[in-house]
Design a protein that fits this description.
- The chain is built from six helices and three strands.
- It has 122 residues and is mainly alpha-helical.
- It has a three-stranded antiparallel β-sheet.
- Strand 2 and strand 3 form a beta hairpin.
- The longest helix is centred in the C-terminal third of the chain and has 14 residues.
- The protein starts with 16 loop residues before the first helix and ends in a 12-residue tail after the last helix.
Amino acid sequence: MTVERSHDVGACKRVDGGISRVFQLLGKRWTGPIVAVLVEGPAHFADLRRAVPGISERMLSDRLSELGTAGIVVREVEEGPPLRVLYRLTESGAALEPALLALGKWAEEHLPEGGACGEPLP
């Protein structure tokens, strides 16, 4: 005899919508380190590339574009020559600093060390 059980999908615990949205943006590879660099202050594209080892120019450009669309980063063109582009956090982006500091502290206490310069763990 088979016992039939009903499952109330609405009773299942669901992930908070805000958490889902933040990790859809900041959970992408490279995005967190880019924001962490910009928390320290505005940076030119080349400086960001040097500060985030292993990121390609295209990926950096894509991530900065996504962060701009999300209202986290502002792109400012400095007239040249040479023409340079400066990126800085918006007020919303700067408001991420306490959360990033808390996540960094948590990682120091609870995650094993990664590879050199933040390479992913095996």
